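Q: My collaborator sent me two sequences in one message, no labels, and asked for predicted structures for both. Can we handle them in order? The first one she listed is below.
A: Yes, handling them in the order given. First sequence, followed by its C-alpha cells:
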Amino acid sequence: MQAILRRLLAGELSIEEAEAELRRWQLEELDGWARLDVGREGRRGLPEVVLADAKAPAEAAGLVVRLAIERGQGLASRLGPEHWQELEARAAEAGLTLLRYGAAVRAVKPGFEPPPRPGRVGLITAGTSDAGPALEARMVVEACGLEARLMADVGVAGLHRLFRPLRDLLDWGASVLVVAAGMDGVLPGVVAGLTDRPVIGLPVAVGYGVGGQGRAALLTMLQSCSTGLVVVNVDNGVGAGAAAVLIAGAGGAAAAGRPRPGRARRGSAGPAR
C-alpha cells in the first residue's frame, strides 16, 4: 500500500490508477471462481493459506501460484500426491521455489524473504506421528518472518525426554510454544505447567478407537488444569501457527532473547531450518 501511495505522490500514477491498484491489491479474482484476499497480510499480519484437499489439483495450484506472483509467496496446506504433481509443474513454469513442510508448502518467488519480525516460536510434538500439523504451524510462522524451532517426540510416555528440549527452547528465547499431541493429548498441559510462556495446544487425530480422531486429545486439552493453556481445533496447524505469530508479535520484543531466570543464555541443540 505504501509503495502505491509513493508512486501516486511521485506522479507515476493518477488518482484513478492508484485507486484501481489499491482495489486489486485488496482482492484479486481468479477466473471468476475464487477471490484471493491478497491484502490479508497487510490487514492482519497473516498470509492467506489455500486449503488444498477440498480443491481440484489445478485449482489449488493456480491459487498458490497466483498468490506467490502477487505477494512473493503462496501457502497451501493438506496437499495430496496429485496436488503436488500439479503444483510442481506450475511452480516450475513460474520460476518459483517450493519449500515443503510435510503436506504443506510455501511457493516463493526468487529473492523473496518475508520481512523479519520480533518473537520466536518453539514447536513441540509428543510423537513423530504428530509432526504433520506442527509442520503446518511452522510454515505459517516462518512465512510471517519469525524464527521457529521444532523439538519432536518428547511425549509423556517417556516424560524425562521433555525437560532438555523444553529448557533449550526457553533458553533460545521462545516467545510462545505450540505443543502438538494426539492419543491422550496430555503434553500441552504439562508444558503449560512448567513455563511462563504462552502455550497453544494443538490436538492431533492420532490414536485408537473412540478417541482416535483427536477427540480425546481435544477434550483433555480443553479440560487441562494448567491455567492459561489455549487450544485450537483438531489438526489445525495453520490456526496454531497464526495464533503463535500474533502472540509473539505482541510480546515477542520483550520475550525474545530473554533467558530463564537464573540461567545464562545458551544455544539450542534442536533443529532449525
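Q: And the one she listed second?
A: Here it is, processed independently of the first:
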Amino acid sequence: MRYAVTSILSGMALALALSAPAFAGPVEDAEAAYAADQKGDFATSMKLYQQSAAGGNAYAMYSIGLIYFDGKGVDRSYVNALKYYKMASDKGYPQAQLAMGKMTEQGQGVKKNLPEAIKYYTLAANQGITEAQNLLGVAYTTGDPAQKVNPDPAQAYAWFTIASKEDASANTRAQRMKGRLTPEQIAAADKIIASYKPKK
C-alpha cells in the first residue's frame, strides 16, 4: 500500500512538472522581444525588453534606448533613449557606450559635451568597437578648445591606426595624420598602438 501511494505521488509530481509553464529569464525575454520586433509587434517587443531589462539584461536596456531613439512604436524621446543607453553603458555594453558618446557629442537630449563623449568613445573603443575608434580619431583631430579639448594628433593617429585593423579607410586617415607628427609624437602614438588590447 505504501508503495502504491508513493508511486501515485511521484506520478503526480512528474505530471505537474511537465505541465507547468517554463519561466523565461532575461535572456529568453530578450530573444522573444527581438523576434516580436522583427514581426512588427512593437508593443510586445517593448514589454518583453522591459522585463528583460528589469532582470539586468544590458542588451535589453540598449534595445529600449534604441527604440526610443528611433521612435519605433513609441514617441521618439532622446531623454528616454539616454536613460536606457546609460543603464546599459554602466553595465559595460559597448554599443550603448558608443551611442552615449554620439548623443553626448551631438547634444541629443543633453547639452553637447565632447569630453564626456570622448570618455564613452574610449570605453567602447577599448572593447574593440571600430566606429568608436574612428570617432576618437576624429575628436582628437579637431578638438574643441571651447570645451577644453585640444587637438591631439598623436592620439588621433593612434586610434585611426587601431581602427584600420577592421576598417581599411581608417588607414588613409592614419597616414594623413602621421605626416603631421613629430618623431616624438610618432613614438608616443606607437606606444599606444602597441599596448592596445581590446577588452572582452
